[in-house]
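Predict the holo structure. Ligand: magnesium ion.
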Amino acid sequence: MKISNAEIFVTCPGRNFVILKIETDQGVVGYGDGTLNGRELPVASYLRDCMVPMLIGMDPRRIEDIWQTLYRGAYWQGGPVAMSALASVDIALWDIKGKMAGMPIYDLLGGRSRDRLMLYGHASGADIPQTVDAVGAWFERGYKVIRAQTGVPGTKTIYGVNPAGGASLGFVPSQADLPIEHVWDSEAYLRMVPKLFETLSSRFGDSVQFVHDSHHRLRPIEAARLSKELEQFRLFWLEDVCRPERADRFRLIRNASTTPLALGEVFHGIQECQPYFEENLIDFIRIAAIHTGGLTHARRIIDYAALHDVRTGLHGPPDVSPIGMAAHVHLGAWAPNFGVQEWATMPAPEMNDVFAHEHVIEGGHVTPSGAPGLGIRFNEDEARKHEFKRSYIGLNRLPDGTAWNY
Ligand code: GCO
Ligand code: MG
């Protein structure tokens, strides 16, 4: 059996996605997602110029060997662009294997550990009352874990909050011709967040647990203060308090409180997880299979996490396509150390024309479909109608104009 062709789709049904199709000489085809938000074309080019020529003629059944060949064969191993490109190849190969076996991918991984996966949704508002309403809407729909973000007085726009106000979208569209600039004021933020959770906790009591995302913006001492002040509200997790390059900085935060910590959405390989697992610095690992070399490598990370009592909270923002989300559904169905799955897919109607599936999202859970492979149908003609649009992630500046982490 041989890979006969591979085609790269860069499509924009509401936002940009990089989808790889792998065809075989036996007629079975598979699809993978390699979307890297704001950096889509470099992934497409890496696939087109470096990986696809090597893939043609390879035996698609040998997923591990193809993974190792593409990874080691680059000499310049890893990096977000290469690992996203590799992810799209890997996910497409697992899709093919599932279709050949007539089995959903979770069965190939070892079978389901659970019937359905708990999800969390994004609730946000320009101020605390709006965020409370947004949380209420998710609560009514049966969600038991809800992410809560709120605007900060004096800061015009803030991560996770819809600038137009209202709570329905719960996400700042990052697409723009050039990066949108935001002002970031750590001190104002640090004063606001405990007030948010005080209000939410008096309103919802123990019936919901909250997630909050600091999006890598704090310094360790600030993060330690926040995690300590939020301890009384027993969050499900506090996410990405600092940039992850220096794991040793997390000891300070860890020692400050029992607030569970989540990290890893910008990781692209197992080595970055290593100090966090080995030194017990986090509770949830946030990797996305589409940025960490696909199912093959994500499974390895999840097994390694289990050894250290770290549970999964795989990344599920609007920039992971339904193909990437399906990979997470299969991993989550299998993973013995599953925690929760973020679910914030793009609400654009064109999405449903391009991607179709029978994974059932209901009552704060997703029940995986038993369809072979990923269980996603990709409509190529519809995808071709939605051309790539240049877009960037935002940029933060401190009140004095200094560039800061977004
Ligand atoms: C999350 C993330 C996202 C990222 C986005 C960047 O927790 O869902 O922080 O919203 O900002 O994926 O591309
Ligand atoms: Mg995040």
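Confidence is low (pLDDT under 50) at residues 165-173. The CA atoms of residues 347 and 387 lie 18 Å apart.
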